[in-house]
Structure formats: C-alpha cells, structure tokens
Amino acid sequence: MEVCRFAPSTTGPAHPGTLLAALLCWLDARSRGARLLLRLEDLDPERCRPEWGSAMQRDLAWLGLDWDEVTEQHAFGARHDAALDRLAEAGRLYPCSCSRARIREAGERARDGGWRYPGWCRERGLPPGGWRACREPLRVRLPEDRVELRDESGRDLSQHPAAELGDPVVRRRDGAMAYLLATVVDDGASGVTRVVRGHDLAASSATQVLLQRLLGLPQPVYRHHLLLLEERPGDGPNPKLAKFHGAIGIDELRCDYAAEALCGVLAQAAGLWSGSAPTIPGALLADFSWDRVTAEDRPLRVVREAGTARLALL
Questions:
Q1: Closest CA to 36 of 230, 261, 190, 181
Q2: 35-40 and 69-72 beta bridge pairing
Q3: Which residues are CB-contacts of 126 (< 8 A; sequence separation ≥ 6)?
Q4: CA–CA distance from 148 to each of 57, 68, 158, 160, 209 (Å)?
Q5: Within the chain, what is the greatest distance between any pair of CA atoms?
Q6: What is residue 247's DSSP assignment?
Q7: How far, rounded to the nearest angstrom, does the alpha carbon of residue 168 sit from its chain's CA centroid?
Q8: Minimal CA–CA distance to 285: which of 277, 275, 294, 273?
Q9: Residues 238-269: pLDDT tens digits?
Q10: Around 95, how many Cα atoms within 13 Å sit in the side-chain half-sphere?
Q11: Burial environment of residue 306 by CB neighbours within 10 A (0 to 12, 13 to 18, 19 or more)
C-alpha cells in the first residue's frame, strides 16, 4: 500500500496556505487508496508550542480532513539520534562554527534562495566525545554527487547539492534536529512512498535524496504543487507577492466562513471547483486529478469590510 503524509510545522496557527496543502495531500492520498499520516513537526524549541499542534488537528478536522495516524515528531528523538550515529560512523558529521551572518557575507546565493555554505569547516572532525559532546551546530559532509531527479509533475529537481547549496546543518546549536534530516528519517521509518508538498520545498529534494542514500533509506515519489500568494507593499507601483503566511489565521477565517465555504474557496484557487460555492473534501474526490490542479501560484487578497474578513482570488 502507498503511504502519504502531511507534515505541517506547529510554529503558529494554520493559514490558507496550510489548509490548501493539507487538502491537496488528502485528495491525493484518498483518491489513491493510500494510507495517510499527519505528522506534526514540532522540533523547534523556540517556535513550536504544544497548543498549536492541538489546534492544527482541530482545524484540519473542521475543514473535513481525516488521518489514519497522527504523530508528533518530538517523540522520535531516539531514531534521529541513531541517524546521527550512522552518519558519524561513516565519517560524515562535522562541527561548524560559521554564523549565518558570516555565510551571508560570503555572498554565494543558493538555489533555494538562501545562502550557500562555502564549506569552511568541512575538514574538521568531531570532538573526542563524538557528536553528543559537540556544542556547535553539526553539518553532514555530502557526497560530491549530482542527483538526477524529476518529480511526478515533470519538474526538474536535478542538482549537485554539495556544490549548489553546500553541506546542510543536521543538528542546530540548541540541540534541535534540523528539518532536512528529521523528515528523511521519519519518512523512512513510516514507510512513506509519496511526498506531496508546496513547491517552495522543491529545492531541498536533491539534498534529501543524498541523505536517504547515506542512511540506506528508500526514495519516495515527490509531487510539488502551487502556493497561495499574498500581496505585500512594494517599492514600486505594484505590490510584491509572497508566500501566503500571517495575513490571516484560521481563527479569524472561522468567524466568517463555514468549513464548506472555505473549502470551496480553496478548491477554486486550486482549479478544482467552478466558482466559490460551498463544498466538502469528499465531494472533490470523484473528479480529483492532478491534471485539473493549476500549476501556477494563485494570489489572494484579504478583504476586510464591516467587521468581516474574506478571501478574494486575484
């Protein structure tokens, strides 16, 4: 049986982008008869809160989405540590003292829009006590391989991660496991065969494939989808468009939308529904096909009038 997962970070309330990603993942899995997991990614000690994980489950259920299993990522610390042990045994882990500011000053842009790590600490070894005795961030020394990869939609994800992005951090200075390693380990442990997510994460796919190879884990099929964008003030006459996050949260939306009405707006934004008439996820299943999902990002505007807040597609 195929296994899919939706893995939102619990760093704040759900927003329209979260809900669209959850809906598309749910439709993909249920249309295929796949097992569907909800994994709450709550490893960041500074930004994640238990109450946001509970709220995420409540809000996804309110929209009409269900799961075959719900897990919290912080419970998997033992297997994350075991992965670090394997990378250390293979001579792949090293401490890194380079600050984000210093890396940014090097001025090497990475393919994912961030800053490429130039590899200044790449030849350092672990301290005598191993990675557990290290108080600095840990990076993994990637193979010098080019990864040839396309996702299910045909998007070219091929990359030479070590050259184009640099070695990734796999454990932060505060001891928290980094997203890239944790998600690879947890997908492998759960038997995930399909990863459906927004295309903002597409640039990390090749690095994840290399980590899978280093750890002897299977490679899932990837599918990346559109994002919802919001208008933000710009320097010129036209506003900038950025990933929809923070303009309006689920609590405010629930004051002005029934679940069916909001589902209709999200389905319309994805190209799966004509007009914004109310609907439910189950009603979208019969005709669901990725061929019907628009490939282009969809801008939204939050319209506030007379004490209400509505979403308008642009």
A1: 190
A2: parallel
A3: 88, 93, 94, 95, 133, 134
A4: 36, 33, 4, 9, 10
A5: 65
A6: S
A7: 16
A8: 273
A9: 555 556 666 688 888 999 999 999 999 999 99
A10: 15
A11: exposed
